[in-house]
Task: structure prediction
Amino acid sequence: MNSKTFRTLAPSIFVGVGGLLFWEVSLAVLQPEGFLLPAPSSIARALFDNFDVVWTGMKSTGYIVVTGLLVGVPMGVVWALLVSRFRLANETLTPLAISLNAIPIIALAPIFNAWFGLLSPVSNQAIVALLVFFPVFINTTKGLTEVGETELELMRSYASSSWQVARTVRIPNAMPFFFTSLKIASSLAVIGAIVAEYFGGRQDALGPLIVQNAGLTRYAEAWSAVLAGSAMGIALYLLSGVLERFAMPWKPDADMVET
Amino acid sequence: MTTRDEVARAVSKLERKAAMKWSARRAVIFLIFFVAISFAYSGYKTFGRAIDDSQTKWPVIGRALPRTDDLTMPPMSDIIAEFGKPPQRNSDKPLVAFIVQAASFTFREAGFGFLLGVILGMGIAIVMLRSPWIERGVSPYLVASQTVPLVAIAPIVVIWGSNSMGWLPFEWTRWMSVSIIATFLTFFPVAMNGIRGLLSADPAAMELMRSYASTRRQTLIRLQLPASVPYVFAAFKIAATGAIVGAVVGEISGGVPGGLGRLILDFASRYTTGPPRLYATVAGAAVLGIVAFALVTIAEFVTLSKRKEGSLAP
Amino acid sequence: MTATVQPAVQISGVSKIFNLGKPNEVRAVEGINLAISEGSFVSLIGPSGCGKSTLLRLVAALTPASDGEIFVNGKPAEQARLDRDYGMAFQTSGLFGWRTVIQNVELPLHLMGWSKAERRERAAEMLELVKLGDFADYYPRELSGGMQQRVSIARALSFRPSLLLMDEPFGALDEMTREHMQTEVLDIWNKTGKTIVFVTHSIPEAVFLSQRVIVMSARPGRLAADITVDIGDRTFETREAPRFFDTITQVREALRNKEPSA
Result:
């Protein structure tokens, strides 16, 4: 590791390690009863002891997350492609989507449960898909439509068709926007799945695990489930990053400095 | 009155007209959307009833689709009518009054948490501005926090709050736990965007301030804070939505009385005695989210139009 | 310069009005009559907002004329656009960041359906012409501003149009790079014999590059003067020659005096 990388990473490592130590030590010293944030060591132990339960939870929740993403993301992209084609559609539907995104979608959970059944995975998948749809749609549309004037004039001078413009300019231009939205979608999907599970769904998933353990004041166990959820979110985030590298080989690395 | 004044007045009048036209257009689009949704809903019900009546089986996919009986999907007219009906046997207060009351309760919880989160977030941002070392240390965690299911922590916070806050000098009510959740959900985006916004001040302008021997505080107030406004408002939009969601989820997991979450819980558990009530309440929650978002957007519009700069996208 | 040969570009009685009838109506250009002969290098110069860029875009049929007619190579401008009779270079290079340099030059050929091998060959040839052959596989962000503009010129020439339209392509470059690029463009012009219409707001640039400097008046843009540049072959010494400065003065005075010539 060269000195520049070290200097960039050192403070955050310091803060992270320091924070964990402080947390552990202050709890050992103060020993408050049933504290909201148990010591890292007890969370780690809870995770280790209950690993199979947590792992089952991850699988159940993960199933909802992935299936919801597989529906919501393509829908977002397809609608973005459609809307970017017609200026009127863009001017009306995109602001609408931005406003609709402000709705607490999770509040629809009870209604979806009524529609699809409390135990059916569809209600939770629908929440995830809906949650994920909006950022993907909004950002991808932005990427497809915010193309430079010069580039568009150039394409007009080539007497290109709309489809050619879409293929050679709009879609490549939209890629960074799409991948940003994909990263947002990954975390949203996990959050949505877990919270939807508070309302109903498989009882062995992460959501119920968190709530039940919290209700029994077994905070360490509850946090270990939260941690598992985070890990899933981070894994999806990293996966998006890998896909991004694949799809956009022209993008500079994060630590490459532009002269 | 000089020509310059006249021109300025004419321009601001034009801007106000443009603003009103813009809001009117948005309202119309919303209305059309609502009508379209109602049509789709009612149309789906009719379609489903027709298939039931004709005794043909739903196609395979159809088994996953919602059933169209009036219990599962109450007619749109019933839902709209329900707003006016009193949900409690002993009082005359219509449902809509309950919903508005609960919504304002939730709004206040979320709003309180939001304000606290903004103060803490901007505070941390200013600290990070002072010390690049702290900034480099803390930023990655701020960014990483977006991947942590913070809303998922809501139940833990609320349950713990109701159990364990005896050591505080004042009475800890349950709504305070919910506000804490909103604070968390506001703090991270505001801190993240806050530091980015503060650092976005034009280097040339920074040099100008230095040439005026401006103190650090003056530079902060006169240059960096104004420069951060577009970024901070973008964070506000995310935070406002997050605070509302966090508040509702917190209320539901903690059974906090008085808020929309409690209302949704009640009507969900007593679903069969009156399905439209749940729909009406959820609609109320939806409106609350939009209102919160609209408030931030209007605040942004007012602030930025004075400076004639563009806003950052959500 | 014979009168019987058809001019490359024929502009007759052309006007362009934006937002006709609305409160923000703008008369960009008015009553333009201009003939540009084949193989000539003509500059359009004028104060900001005089409509020179608009005029160029009218010739490119990127926007329709409100009045009058424009013929390029004997056909209506719109047809010339559909037939891809011209190449265009803009002030911002408009290179696509996700394509390598050579892929950017191949862009129009790609759109015209050329085969991969043919595209590659022609693009490589064009890059040699602008002396960037070694940078074929670089990405645009790795190149300097001047180099990016050279790539954009290579791209404009890739399908060998007879007409080249350039809208202040060197506007964003520093003086030294500008002078270098001017020499390059003249070099290309000498080698390829194309007709070039060049919009600029720099008087020395207009005089150095072209045989004819068309001066436009402020909005609404009309032709104020049509100055023939007679300073011989351009060499390093040209920029310091008295004739050069005299012609610059001539152009400057025409710019100050906004009355359109008969």
User: Anything to note?
Assistant: Chains C and B do not touch (no CB pair under 8 Å). Chain C has a mean pLDDT of 89. Residues 11 and 70 of chain C are 5 Å apart (CA to CA). DSSP finds eight helices and ten strands in chain C.
